Amino acid sequence: MKPFHLKQFSIAQDSCAMKVTLDACLFGALCDVKNSQRILDIGTGTGLLALMSAQGSTAKVDALELDEKACEQAQQNIINSQFSKRIQVIHQDIKQFSCAAPYDTIICNPPFFSDHLKGPNAKRNQARHNDQLSFYDLCISMSKHLSKDGKAWVLLPCHEMAAFKISAHAQQLYVSQGWQIKSKPDKAAHRYVFSLEHSELNGTHKDKAIDDMEKIIIQSNDSGEYSAQFKSLLADYYLKL
């Protein structure tokens, strides 16, 4: 598979089970990292989100990855970039990870699926299914490593949101901001991008309502042309925008 080239870096992905996706690129563009000092990327995969976060900030980024081959590829992608001095790739399970100080920003494109049929590719199953990192374990880790006034950013399929919220609330994490992602104007939303904060900050112990989330439409028509909204968000990253 050919590398995925962006304006300021390239992503080799032949050794990773999960390849670069349009949804992940949009997620990286939506994460507000510009004022971040310390960022934790949980499950970095190819290193895409760590590199987008480094491009969008002056922060130090710790990119955590469980799979050895993906970790090696992320490391190489980062070494080959102009952001290598600010990104550290760590081969470790988030459940065993410890850090010297909390992070003001956490980003995670987690294993999505619960109780779904698996395919024959074990590595792809690990990346897509949450057997090894349940939503509950992920929320424990985010709460543990997030500074008291920090934000954790997550990308999820819409049908997994209710289950995720149960685990987040158990750790006193609540949705503070979010978007509904639609592929086309006439399609239902298929992904949510949202941020979580510790509950003591907002005092209300309530999530931002899904109906109040702004909708982002990727393609404006059936020709496959990107919407003006999508082009604006990805203009600093996509080569052809």
The Rg value, from CA coordinates, equals 17 Å
Tally of separate helices: 8
Task: Give the strand tally.
Answer: 10
Query: How are the strands of the biggest sheet laid out side by side?
Result: 5-4-3-6-7-9-8-10
- H/E series: EEHEHEHEEHHEHEEHEH
- Could you describe the largest sheet, including whether it forms a barrel? 8 strands, mixed
**CATH homologous superfamily designation of the domain at 4-116 and 123-169:** Vaccinia Virus protein VP39
Helix content: 25-40%
Bin the strand percentage. Answer: 15-25%
Q: In angstroms, what separates the terminal alpha carbons?
A: 23 Å
Overall pLDDT score: 90
Please name the defining characteristics of this protein.
241 residues; alpha/beta; Rossmann fold; 8-stranded mixed beta sheet; two-stranded antiparallel sheet; 10 strands
Quick rundown:
This protein is an alpha/beta fold and 241 residues long. 28% of the residues lie in helices and 25% in strands. The model is unreliable at 113-130 (pLDDT under 50).
Helices and strands, with pairings:
Elements: E1 4-5, E2 10-11, H1 22-30, E3 38-42, H2 48-55, E4 60-65, H3 68-79, E5 87-91, E6 103-108, H4 122-128, H5 135-145, E7 146-157, H6 161-170, E8 173-182, E9 191-198, H7 199-202, E10 214-217, H8 228-234
Parallel strand pairs: 3-4, 3-6, 4-5, 6-7, 8-10
Antiparallel strand pairs: 1-2, 7-9, 8-9
Helix pairs in contact: 1-2, 5-6
